[in-house]
Amino acid sequence: MTHKELAALPTTTTIETAARALGLGRTRAYQLARESRFPCKVIRIGTTYRVVTADLRRLVSSSSA
What we know:
three-stranded antiparallel sheet; 4 helices; alpha+beta
């Protein structure tokens, strides 16, 4: 995922989009979220997981620096 795509994301994004930005597979991302070990803040709403985009951006920018 490019920096431009990352900057265009809304306030929260799907776990699949966050996983793609981090280079994780979908299954692994959901596993980490269920175990409260996903590297960004995850909000669970019912059966849906949403990732806080600000945390995702911070993590991606710190790992590329």
